[in-house]
Amino acid sequence: MIPWIGQPLPRFEDPPLLTGEGRFVADLTRDASFLRFVRSPVAHGRIVSIEAPGRITAFTADDLRQVRPIRPLLHRPDFHPIEQPVLASGKVRFVGEPVAVVVARTPEEAEDAAEQVFVEIEPQDPVVSAPDALRPGAPTVHDHLEDNVVVDARFETEGVDEVFAGAAVVVEFDLRSQRQNALPLEARGSVASYDPRSGRTTLTASVQSPHVIRTILADLLGIPESDLRVVVPDVGGAFGQKFCLAPEDVVTAWVARRLRTTVSWVEDRRENLMSSFHSRDHHYRVRGAFDRDARLLAVDADLLCNIGAYSCYPVTCGVEPLMALAEFPGPYDFRTYRVRSRGITTNTCPMAPYRGVSRPVITLAMERLMDLAAVRFGIEPAEIRRGNLVSEFPYSSATGLVYDEGSYVESLDRAVEEIGLEDFRDRQAAARSEGRYLGVGISVFSERTGYGTSAFAARSMDVTPGYETVDLAMDPSGNVEVRLGASPHGQGLETTLAQLIGDELGVEPARVRVVHSDTDRTPYGWGTFASRSLVIAGGAARLASDRLRAKLAAIASAELEAAPEDIVIRAGRATVAGTDAGIDVSELARLAYHSSHRLAGGMDPGLTATATYDPAGTFSNACHVAAVEVDPETGGVRVDRFVVVEDAGRLINPMIVDGQLHGGVTQGIAGALYEEIRYDSEGNILTTSLMDFLPPTLAEVPTIEVHHLETISDATITGAKGLGEGGTIGAPAAIINAVADALRPLGVEVAEVPATPSRLRRLVSESERIPA
Amino acid sequence: MTERTRVEVELTVNGRSHRVRVEPRRTLADALRDDCGLTGTHLGCEHGVCGACTILADGEPVRSCLMFAVQCEGMDLRTVEDLADGDRLHPIQQAFWENHGLQCGFCTPGFLMLSAGYLAQNPDPDEEELRAVLSSNLCRCTGYQNILKAVRQAAEVMRG
Amino acid sequence: MAPGYYTPAFMKPAPFDYHQARSVAEAVAHLGEYGYEAKILAGGQSLVPAMNFRLARPAVLVDINPLDELDYLEEDGDTLRIGAMVRHVTFERPVTEGPTGRLLAMAAHHVGHLPIRVRGTFGGSLAHADPAAEWCVIALLLDAELATRSPSGGRDIPAADFFQTVFTTALEPEELLVEARLPNLAPHTRIGFQQFSRRAGDFALTMAAVALEADDGPVANARIALGGVSDRPVRAGEAEQALEGQPATDESFRAAAEIAAQEFDAIGDIHGSADYRRDLVRALTRRALEQAIST
Ligand SMILES: Cc1cc2nc3c(=O)[nH]c(=O)nc-3n(C[C@H](O)[C@H](O)[C@H](O)COP(=O)(O)OP(=O)(O)OC[C@H]3O[C@@H](n4cnc5c(N)ncnc54)[C@H](O)[C@@H]3O)c2cc1C
Ligand code: FES
Ligand code: FES
Description:
The complex is a heterotrimer.
Chain A: H1 14-19, E1 33-39, E2 45-51, E3 57-60, E4 91-92, E5 98-104, H2 107-115, E6 118-123, H3 130-134, E7 149-156, H4 160-165, E8 169-181, E9 189-195, E10 200-205, H5 210-221, E11 228-231, H6 247-259, E12 262-266, H7 269-275, E13 278-290, E14 296-308, H8 319-327, E15 336-345, H9 359-377, H10 381-386, E16 395-396, E17 402-403, H11 408-419, H12 421-433, E18 437-449, H13 453-457, E19 468-474, E20 480-484, H14 493-505, E21 512-515, H15 533-560, E22 567-570, E23 573-576, E24 582-584, H16 585-594, E25 608-613, E26 618-630, E27 637-647, H17 654-674, E28 704-709, H18 726-743, E29 752-753, H19 757-766
Parallel strand pairs in A: 1-12, 8-29, 10-11, 14-15, 20-21, 27-28
Antiparallel strand pairs in A: 1-5, 2-4, 2-6, 3-5, 7-15, 8-13, 9-10, 9-12, 13-14, 16-17, 18-26, 19-20, 19-25, 22-23, 23-24, 26-27
Chain B: E1 7-13, E2 16-22, H1 28-35, E3 54-57, E4 60-63, E5 76-78, H2 91-98, H3 108-121, H4 127-134, H5 145-159
Parallel strand pairs in B: 1-5
Antiparallel strand pairs in B: 1-2, 3-4, 3-5
Chain C: E1 4-5, E2 17-20, H1 24-34, E3 38-41, H2 47-52, E4 60-63, E5 73-76, E6 79-83, H3 99-108, H4 114-119, H5 122-128, H6 134-141, E7 145-150, E8 153-158, H7 159-162, E9 163-165, E10 168-169, E11 176-183, E12 190-196, E13 206-213, E14 220-227, E15 234-235, H8 237-243, H9 250-262, H10 274-294
The site of flavin-adenine dinucleotide (FAD) has 30 residues of chain C, from strand 3, helix 2, helix 5 and strand 11.
């Protein structure tokens, strides 16, 4: 099957996962004691005292005085740092915040012990929503930050007011996206083991970025990094929630060192819903100015992001507001733009990036803008988009982002064709006369992927991620070992990289072993997040393979007495182009190690190569179209069809790509219709079970119809673009636009996600044109 | 902490007997994982919704997080570790592999056991039934498409 | 002094003593001995989640799963007798000819998911008394009688008196529910069952079960029971009366549904307000009536 690139190869990762041989954190607690965190039941208050019966092993902030607080930083004047002690110290700031930790022999006994720790708290007024936190006189979450504003970023091009004043049509609306939890099916957790002989501590943790976690752990604990090893076992999903540092992991490592033993922390689902990172929770006010030909001239946006009680390390709570600010324009070509984007702290669970980060909401905002304008102009939603989409490349956006080549208009046209828009409009009209409400919704968007250091540096991050390094070695038997700092967990990167390297080095992918997720065995890297691994780690792997291949060709050229450029390496053999002369790659490998005296002068023995890749980034693009039916009497929405036309450049393994899209779209549908973390006005969380927070099942998800375009841009060396987040970014807008389209005859506008049945029903019953 | 009363329970898992000493409050899932060392059965919610802990009890798919080990003496318990025949994957496992029915793999044991229990009694399900049954469990990664495809294919293979 | 608190989250049960009952008499004796301290463990599909959260923390658990003597279905004249330990899954195919069996089957598919139905029991569902439980609504619709055993004997409780408020029934701590007696619907009775839930398998936000006779003439013996709208399952008595003797038309169904939507104390929760529940009652009652008449 050469080339391997482009083949739907079944994954090498799967067999152990299919037979119960997978090893997740909770499977590794055999020799461990169990930790249980005592958590705050109060959203805001001063800790007066913490009492634990003497027979219980318990630790509080007093015991952890030597541990530094988590203090994520951006170096920009519009950012005000806030600190998080790993166990609450002095104050509690959200329900679920860890206040103390107990140690016991079994999980059940750990809960018994936690139950006996008594915390006296003097409650203070909490503030729960971002708009409330901005009101004058609102309670302050962090004493030094009187207005609760952590980030207040602005951007403005010239002449915004003038363009609005002269516009033919101005569209203005509010948008509210509620809170979600990324909800990996495996919650968080870690096992920390102290080895008295070496003095080293190994943290085996369900995280996305082992190297970064090791660095910060060493910083916070005040120990050399070499005393720590971070290992990531199988990870049961992450979606961003396991990228940022969990304070609980720090405590787990600390307790292991303190007790000189092995301890484990296995988060349960209630803790996960209550105190693991949340996401989204934005309030927008958006205005768009159009000329009389329905061309978008300018956008003016005020964006509020509720960042919760603390900032997340390393990306900081600036990640949501700053990404929203920079990427709001999406795939539309307009030059005049004003935006204010704020991150507001409240007495709620902290936020961290979740699949898509701000983009599901900003895409929803831009796509609502397009649909609302289309209604005003009386044209089809597809038509207004065609007239405004970016179509010449490279394109430089109002905020200075450079878009490499994409297929924005083409993807739209293809998606509209697949859904059969004209027929749909006929069916929709017929259904309406029977009192049924069908709708179709479009979402076109760009997905910036493969962020390198230059992209992150634009946010002035104290910790600037971006590059990846790959170490590659062919052993004397001709098998390949690849070591990388990225840390895949379900994305199939082991298989994809093996395909990529297999083609380069002429070996079967099954002979390529990918080593990752162990700081002792891999080069420093940033982990797996932000749809970056295939682009960046893949790029580095490609570069390293090129180097190794060059060496193989050089050795072969000496052996075969031909010029190196004439050597073709393919299917396990190096041959001289156009001849039968050849030698097995495995023979070359053996020679490089065992007969190094035969290597040409100056050539080192062995076959290893290292490469680092740090691209500027690349934009994937896609169009999603949803067809829905809304029941105006119950507010229920059924998604009948969902079409995706995706352009992520070159597809290395199309089966894996489609899987990412299916899963991404499903999470997008979840955000649009089902999932919502709720707090009451006292800051009590109301959604701490999966009976209240509602990830969809198969019954709620339609067949997702995926089609591909393959625009190969030169922004990445493999030609591949990232796509891990696209499904989640585009789907909410397609769904909400479809719901709005369905209900338009009733005079209803949808301004809040998720569009739950009770919300939709309320809109319908408040509308004037209520059906009898 | 005082020693809690533990009781001896004999569990028959995958045809093998396991004598374990557990507190009555130990769930079957925890007993399988921690006392029998069979960690293929996963816990995703411990309140009956996600289905990651689904195993077969006397042939029927059940949530092992909602049973206590002390209740299960004499039951024929089957977990994901029992599906493959040595190196030969069970047709459902094979179909999940070929159809990319898993990503992180955390939900997979639950879906495999749910399908195994269901297909054993309903070898030829129609599409609607199959969708209804597979909606018993949650998967956060795959969007379910390929799980459905895999189970459909496995049913065909198993019917021969 | 500042108030004191304990941690708010648990996922493993508090300790308890476990007794496996080998007979109804033994189970009842345990209940007599431990009273409020004890709880019956039937299918465990409601009790165990509550215990894992430590919302329920019985000191003693009396397991009645071994009691085959409570796992039976019997036709007794015009009455269907259901042993407390009959599992939900049993009802997926009609257990009796005629409308009663069909109604039970329609509802059965909505009770959780297959693995829940395999374990959960008819008696457990009634004793648990979730206001949105299918079996509670149907018991009320059919005017079931619920038979109990206790150390002092036993009694028969009409469904209308059995359900008192959320998760609360007329059962005394030492009382075991042993049987539900469902008077079979007349063979020509038409039935409808409609519910609306957020996801497949979830407890319904609202459900409406209806039964009525309307062969060629006006509606007779109309019954409407609603779930998920109040602190217990409710009968829409005024709507039933309003239908009596009316033609089986869209118009009278609409009117009855409107009455049904107004005649009880609706309760809201995070999935929807009380007003929303009324809206659902209106729509689902009408649809259930239409379904009854069209099948
Ligand atoms: C994910 C999920 C979804 C669900 N969805 C639904 C749904 O849509 N509709 C629905 O109706 N149910 C649903 N359920 C609940 C399920 O139907 C339960 O089986 C049922 O509510 C309780 O029955 P059980 O036999 O499991 O009782 P248990 O959980 O064992 O007991 C419940 C309570 O009743 C008491 N009890 C049980 N039997 C007796 C008896 N014979 N005498 C006296 N007291 C007794 C127990 O002490 C306990 O207090 C769901 C459950 C889960 C986990
Ligand atoms: S762990 Fe048992 S159903 Fe989720
Ligand atoms: S594969 Fe990850 S939850 Fe299903």
